[in-house]
Design goal:
single chain; about 425 residues; alpha/beta; Peroxisomal Thiolase, Chain A, domain 1; ten-stranded mixed β-sheet; three-stranded mixed β-sheet; 13 helices; globular
């Protein structure tokens, strides 16, 4: 079977952009959560967020790009450029053998909000002449335009698509890219996810269902997955883009491989739009199927990157899922949630977590769960509280859970067979 390895990583995460800065934040146990600055926090129940300190001009985008690209698309393009440079792919070879698959739950939210405001301001004139388009709006309102923009940036001519499966979008997009490589439709995939959901409509919607935390007085410690005092997630933003290559393609050009993606599975609970079954059966099934595809048993797992959103329901749900799928290994293996440090960027976070997993294998350091001072008795696994842990890590499980009942799991391994870079 054709195999897929990660040869390039690009990140725009809360805090400073760049993969190096992202990894430094995660391993330090510091958080990038703070009081909202991108818009006035006063109208909202949850007034904290994990924002990226992102200046598009400093990141190499031109003024014309800034004018026409939504913030999420800007994240995607900057991350893709970093990933391609990191991979050493200065030329893609046959563009028809290269593709793009991105994930996003909401798409170009900031453009839509700005566009709505401008259209509303001019509402009377637009009603009179509805054929005239509003002036100076972003060109990219449709989510799939992000994938098209990354494809244009990378110069690829193969399959291009956008996956939108809620909070598992990033994980599912990377899984789809791996499937395209395995089936022979592509040799190189530029894949990941981007999201810029810190906007009035997103904040208002999560306020309405009380999914986000109202711990506004202590924003730096507001995201606290698995802690007894947790009360919701912190909304974040960002992007991660990976270059994923067919193993032999990467070997022929002497590329460095961070990790092999050896297993992926997705399931749905067909249960409730936002609710989760307490036993975690569907996530457990996704984990078992991903392990089967990787031809591994639970004892091989060295680290689990949890979804760990910080809601009461989710953290208990996936604790049970790990026990169901990993058995006794669930009590032995370190588990952590990087959302404690970078918040929950919806469709983008799965890709950010895959990037973190690849870096965990690369550097032999397990990121901690920040702000975990008192574990919920129902969350009784080793959640790596507060401090990063040095350990050799050969196999990582990462999972995602999304509104609509989506449950996804992926296995990453240290690349080693048939001369792959170690």
């Amino acid at each position: 079977m054709r195999r897929a390895v990660i040869t390039g990583i690009g990140v725009v995460a809360p805090g400073r952009p760049g993969t190096k800065e992202f990894w430094s934040l995660l391993t330090s146990g510091r958080t990038a959560t703070r009081t909202l600055t991108l818009l006035d926090p006063a109208p909202y129940r949850s007034q904290v967020a994990a924002e990226a300190d992102f200046d598009p001009l400093e990141q190499g985008l031109g003024q014309a790009d800034v004018q026409r690209l939504d913030r999420a698309a800007q994240f995607a393009v900057v991350s893709a450029r970093e990933a391609l440079a990191d991979s050493g792919l200065t030329a893609l070879g046959d563009p028809g053998r290269c593709g793009v698959t991105l994930g996003s739950a909401l798409g170009c939210t900031t453009s839509l909000d700005h566009g709505y405001d401008r259209v509303s301001d001019r509402g009377q004139r637009l009603l009179v002449d509805h054929t005239r388009a509003p002036e100076h709006l972003h060109d990219y309102f449709v989510p799939s335009s992000m994938a098209a923009e990354v494809a244009r940036t990378a110069g690829v001519g193969g399959p291009v698509s956008l996956v939108s499966t809620g909070c598992t979008s990033g994980l599912d997009a990377i899984g789809h890219a791996v499937e395209l490589i395995r089936e022979g439709s592509a040799d190189v995939m530029v894949t990941g996810a981007a999201e810029a959901p810190i906007s009035p409509i997103s904040l208002a919607c999560f306020d309405a269902i009380r999914a986000t935390t109202a711990r506004n007085d202590t924003p730096a410690t507001a995201s606290r997955p698995f802690d007894r005092t947790r009360n919701g997630f912190v909304l974040g933003e960002g992007a991660a883009v990976l270059v994923v290559e067919e193993l032999e393609h990467a070997r022929r050009r002497g590329a460095h491989a961070y990790a092999e993606i050896s297993g992926f599975a997705s399931r749905s609970n067909a249960y409730h739009m936002t609710g989760l079954r307490a036993d975690g059966a569907e996530m457990a099934e996704a984990v078992r199927c991903a392990l089967d595809e990787a031809r591994l048993d639970p004892g091989a797992v060295d680290y689990v990157n949890a979804h760990g959103s910080g809601t009461k329901q989710n953290d208990r749900h996936e604790t049970e899922a790990f026990k169901l799928s990993l058995g006794g290994r669930a009590y032995e293996v370190p588990v952590s949630s990087i959302k404690s440090m970078i918040g929950h960027s919806l469709g983008a976070v799965g890709a950010l977590e895959v990037a973190a997993c690849a870096l965990t294998i690369e550097h032999g350091v397990v990121p901690p769960t920040a702000n975990l001072h008192e574990s919920d008795p129902a969350c009784d696994l080793d959640y790596t509280p507060l401090t990063a842990r040095e350990q050799r890590t050969d196999t990582v499980l990462t999972v995602g859970s999304g509104f609509g009942g989506f449950q996804s799991a992926m296995i990453l391994n240290r690349p080693r067979l048939r001369g792959a870079a170690a």
